[in-house]
Amino acid sequence: MTPSHSYKTQPRRGPARRIGRTLAFVLPVVLVLSGTLAVTSVNWSGNSSDSVLTASAENVSSRAKSRAPQDVLRDRLLLELQEKNPGVALTHLQEEINRKPSLAAHCVSIARALGRAAVRTYGPARAQSYARPVCDTSFATGVAAQA
Questions:
Q1: Among 3, 25, 41, 48, which residue is least crowded by beta carbons within 10 Å?
Q2: Is the pTM value of this prediction over 0.70?
Q3: Of residues 127, 125, 123, 121, the one with CA closest to residue 139
Q4: Helix/strand/coil for 22
Q5: pLDDT tens digits for range 68-127
Q6: Local structure of residue 26 (DSSP, 8 states)
């Protein structure tokens, strides 16, 4: 006697398979809709008055302050030059270069900026009197360029 029905096991169709199929259908739809909404919310006309992103795009054209170590050092030394004198600022520049050799590449530009600021604050003759051999006499070069 041969069985008329073969007893093949049917694959199980449990809740995990149903959830997987649902996600396979719903996820692409959600991604397409969210992408479409993102593209439509951007103001492509260039008029910022009716843009959704107005608050974040207000000051895009203003330059952000650079906070690189050499810029921080330069700003601090320029303030010191005005509060004390160029000699103190040059001494501290040399100390910082000795302490952080990575700043040596920026020594010339910082010393020149100090020289130019010294001329504006003290005048060319008095600014030149503070010159010393920091960064290959770049301070004196900044004084001469400004004078």
A1: 3
A2: no
A3: 127
A4: helix
A5: 999 999 999 999 999 999 999 999 999 999 999 999 999 999 999 999 999 999 999 999
A6: H
Tokens of 63: 């330059």
The beta strand positions in the chain, using DSSP E, are none
Quick one: CA dihedral 62, 64, 65, 70, positive or negative? negative
d(CA 7, CA 95): 89
Phi, psi of 116 (to 5 degrees): -65, -40
Letter string b/e over residues 36-72, b meaning 16 or more CB atoms within 10 A of that residue's CB:
eeeeeeeeeeeeeeebeeeeeeeeeeeeeeeeeebee
